[in-house]
Request: fold
Amino acid sequence: MSFQTGLSGLNAAARNLQVIGHNIANANTTGMKASRAEFAEVYAAALGATGGASAGMGVQVAAIAQLFTQGNLKITGNQLDLAINGAGFFQVNAPDGSPLFTRNGEFKLDKDGFIVTNTGARLQGFDTDALGQRTSAVTRDLTLPTGQPIPPRASGITAANPLSRGIEITANLDAGAAIESPPTAPLTEAQKRFGTALNAFDEQGSPVAVQLYFVKTAANTWQIAASLDNGNSLLAGGGALTFGANGQLVSSAISNITIPAAVAPATVPSSALTIPLTLADPAGTPTLTQFGSRFGVFALTQDGYAAGDLTSIDIAENGVVMARYSNGISRAEGQVALANFRNLQGLQPINGGFWAQTFASGPPTLGGPQEGGVGLVRQNALEESNVELTQELVNMMVAQRSYQANAQTIRTQDQVLQTLVNMR
Reply:
């Protein structure tokens, strides 16, 4: 029986050395989680046995446990390198469509714009609106529009943008400005004293330079006029502004600015642009004031833009993938999904740094980063292996000594049997 005991020790020590060797071999593997061999005693079952009477039959490997502790994060500068800081896994779909899970965030773009692993598995995520708010709980393959430009959008009210806010202005008008006559074309130099300019865009994304002029026509009363040629002629639209004694906007009689098709020749077919003037923030607070300080425009935006090509990708800690374009537009293209499991030890490790779910692990819980106990996502970084190389080398020496000791057990038993054989 001592032979069996020693042999079980040899087998267990050999298996332990195999696990330690696997850890050491993968000390530089991105996202790798170390394993350890866990042992249990072996006893023979005997009828009528009493407690303390069994010497035991050796040892067995009870389990190979994985250690899901956090690895160090390494900065790479690659915009598609992702690391999870905390719990969770990236979900990817293998080429055959089966779901897999990984901590290795070495992602790339394939020829079709899909975000993929080195093996071609596609990163999964959620649909979002243009601002990054999730719109679906169903995951899909995340893609980036690398092969096509973002189409242009005309400024102002269009069929695709019926609720346009048009030109939004935040400015202060000088309360001490001189009173001028109401603006008519051509504007005088005094009437053009307080003005600003911006580019609007037609339906093909061609810029149209628009000048806005603020003319004080009475105490606490101003008029806005718009022009395309420095005030030599005026566009339809604009109107009057009235301020209270405290400098706040009291009322406005503003109409949309209309740019006729004749001055937007790049538009095919020719069409006029209708651009609202928005003088309040989304909450309704006026953004124009009349204080006793110099005229100043603090913010001036409009909602049209030219066509643009993808220039960079930003992935936030909450997993929202923001694409940035050459025309200055940023648009969310989805949100990275993270998965978690109730029983991590039930996951089945497979080739390539992936895990597959099993009956023991249970189904994954999917959500965004920082939701449901999962961690956050770090862009431009990778999670290093959590193997402690020094500790593994010490473990290897201990396992080697264990193997030698069990071999000595067998050798000693052999000597005992040899002594019995030689007895006369």
Notes: The mean pLDDT is 90. The chain has three domains: 2-69+387-421, 73-142+331-383, 167-301. The CA atoms of residues 87 and 374 lie 5 Å apart. The first strand starts at residue 35 and ends at 42.
